[in-house]
TrEMBL record:
Residues 1-96 form the CARD domain. One of its GO terms (cellular component) is mitochondrial membrane. The keyword Mitochondrion applies. SUPFAM superfamilies: DEATH domain. CDD domains: CARD_BinCARD_like (cd13785). Keywords: Disulfide bond, Endoplasmic reticulum, Membrane, Mitochondrion, Transmembrane, Transmembrane helix. GO terms for biological process: regulation of apoptotic process. It is a single-pass membrane protein. InterPro entries: CARD, CARD19, CARD_BinCARD, DEATH-like_dom_sf. This is Caspase recruitment domain-containing protein 19. Its main location: endoplasmic reticulum. The keyword Plastid does not apply.
Length: 179
């Protein structure tokens, strides 16, 4: 996309709601007047820096003038805008279009959201299933010496969630191991 087309696309954004103030517009005009090759002549620079005309009028005339001059002039305007108002330059609609990601590229922020959108209940359910399977494997393993009654209590403990259940199970196991 040529710089003239980009400037035409960004023109309303730049002119609307006074995004550029007097000082920034003056700096841009001076930079366009002083760069090599000279984009604005001294007379044109004075015309676009005239404090008698409104900022809105001067800015719209400057942008139209640059579009008539060609792509190189519009490119220098963007360079001057980037130097003097970088935040505004980054917020331009044409810059946002250029920054759109490749449709085949994976958006990691979106992917992270898609993986985490199930919530805490899903996590607790998965964790309970995993803990239950681990406990089941531990209790059914023939090498472990777990008492029959403790096996029943430990089998149902993942269903009942709470700190007091864990304490009761631990006390029961200690009591059974002493006997």
């Amino acid at each position: 996309q040529s710089y003239c087309h980009r400037l035409q696309h960004d023109m309303y954004f730049l002119i609307s709601t006074s995004r550029l103030n007097e000082q920034v517009v003056d700096k841009i005009v001076l930079q366009l007047n002083r760069v090599y090759p000279q984009i604005l002549t001294n007379e044109e620079a004075e015309k676009f820096r005239n404090p008698k005309a409104s900022l809105h009028t001067r800015l719209s005339d400057l942008l139209k003038h640059l579009q008539k001059k060609g792509d190189r002039h519009c490119q220098e305007f963007y360079r001057a805008l980037q130097i003097n108002a970088e935040q505004l330059f980054n917020d331009l609609p044409s810059r946002k279009i250029l920054k759109t990601p490749d449709p085949t590229e994976i958006d990691t922020d979106k992917e992270q959201y898609m993986l985490n959108d199930r919530g805490p209940v899903f996590f607790l359910a998965c964790f309970s299933v995993a803990a239950g399977l681990a406990l089941f494997w531990y209790c059914c393993n023939s090498e472990t010496q777990v008492i029959g009654r403790a096996r029943r209590i430990l089998g149902f403990s993942p269903i009942i969630i709470g700190g007091h259940v864990r304490n009761i199970c631990m006390l029961y196991l200690e009591d059974m191991s002493r006997n």
